[in-house]
Amino acid sequence: MRKIWWKILCVVIIFYVIIWGFIGPVPRLAIINESIRNTYFHVALWLAMTTLLLLSMVFSIRYLMKGNIKDDDIASEVAKAAIFFGILGCLTGSVWANYTWGDPWPNDPKLNGAAVGILIYLAYLLLRSSFEDEQRRARISSVYNIFAFAVFIPIIYILPRLTDSLHPGSGGNSTFGSYDFDNNIRRVFYPAVIGYILLGLWIAELRIRIKQINRVREEALIESGKL
Amino acid sequence: MCRTFAARNEVPKAGKSDAGYITTANGKPKAASRRPAPITLNEIKTLIWKEVTLEWRQKYAISGMLLYVVSTVFVCYLSFNLRRNQLTPIVWNTLFWIILLFTAVNAIAKSFSQERHGRLLYYYNLCSPQAIIISKIIYNSLVMGVLSVLGFVFYAFVMGNPIQDNGLFSICILLASTGFASVLTLIAGIASKADNSATLMAVLSFPIILPMLLMTIRLAKNAMDGLDWSVSTDEITTLLSIDLIVITLSYLLFPYLWRS
């Protein structure tokens, strides 16, 4: 078996997060109440997504440096997994917002930034699909991917902090970790981030393998056609 | 070989700038474009001058853009049913920047697609890509500056001018036109490589330009209300840093785009 341990680890962590996330002790806070458990899902999903996008950008840079098409496969599939997490993060956030802020989509700079960020990466997918030639597609979308990540980070993490936002860490609200982020939460939260990252990598890995098998088969077809 | 190529493709006839290309190219164009090439100010200057001459020779492009701004402003004016008194400052401000955004997208989209394939190859042989992107950014910023100033004058003429701090507003226009130009130039380069470049241009650029647009609108609002400059330092520094990031990235990434 090919290095299966991290997949087992991923499954174990995800089950741990789901079970312990729902029955474990959490701090009691006004308004948020039990919904603080959503930290394990919403916040962790966003962190995992950012990490995956960073990874995708690193592979895009690697592609531009070395020109190996496999790097581009990795970059694009990891980005797709990240978009999937982004959409899940939006949905979980929406549920949370509905019960704490009273509106599934409050007019909040961070939310709008998140929507714009997802739009940027959907545009990346559109850009990819508009090229026929593989190398050309890889090069141009790598350029866009790097550019997109450099714009994505300010949209999500810097601009909302300059304005008033309902999210923690902006507009005078305290950040996480200052006082309400106690050890009970940490015990589940950090594994959750790792678990989601592993899950994303797993999804991406499967898709990359499908892509590469398809490529090999296509090449074989072309070869046999020639011969 | 370069010279024959030039003759066949009717490259700009400006004799002076031609000489400039040849001296900077050194006869080793390919190597120069792969290395972080030694770009000279002279090269950039020549390229900008070439853009200006080209633009001047085919005046329809720039006059078309001017007409675009003017007619959009006029359409907005008529659509608001001539009641300028009812236009709140927020609507005034937002409308102006959205008009400018669309003008910028339309004006800059052509900066790569208007060049024919053969001519692009010719530049590829002669100049370093960094010089090309820098010159295009500078040139597009100039065009955007001119368009937005003229657009503003006409807009203020028909829709009224509620601005109290003209100095801050002109800084705002300056920052916005450089910012729009630098973001859109790279995006135009990306989009011009694809087939449906008009759609792609809009789809790729709008989300990326959004933070810049929001910051600009906020800064312009401060200028309209005549607030103290110290209130706006946050916005100015953010805009400047976004501009800087974008220009650096364009400088670093364009060579890869150029090669394909």
From TrEMBL, chain A:
GO terms for biological process: cytochrome complex assembly. The keyword Transmembrane helix applies. The keyword Amino-acid biosynthesis does not apply. It comes from the Bacteria. It is found in: Membrane. InterPro entries: Cyt_c_assembly, Cyt_c_biogenesis_CcsA/CcmC. It is a multi-pass membrane protein. Residues 34-162 form the Cytochrome c assembly protein domain. Keywords: Cytochrome c-type biogenesis, Membrane, Transmembrane, Transmembrane helix. The chain crosses the membrane at residues 5-23, 43-65, 77-99, 111-131, 143-160, 188-208. It holds the Pfam family Cytochrom_C_asm. Coiled coil: none annotated. One of its GO terms (cellular component) is plasma membrane. Its main location: membrane. One of its GO terms (molecular function) is heme binding. This is Heme exporter protein C. The lineage of its organism: Bacteria, Pseudomonadati, Bacteroidota, Cytophagia, Cytophagales.
From TrEMBL, chain B:
Pfam families: CcmB. Coiled coil: none annotated. GO terms for molecular function: heme transmembrane transporter activity. It is found in: Membrane. Keywords: Membrane, Transmembrane, Transmembrane helix. One of its GO terms (biological process) is cytochrome complex assembly. It is a multi-pass membrane protein. The chain crosses the membrane at residues 60-80, 92-109, 137-156, 168-191, 198-219, 239-258. This is Heme exporter protein B. Belongs to the CcmB/CycW/HelB family. The keyword Ribosomal protein does not apply. One of its GO terms (cellular component) is membrane. Its main location: membrane. InterPro entries: Cyt_c_biogenesis_CcmB (IPR003544).
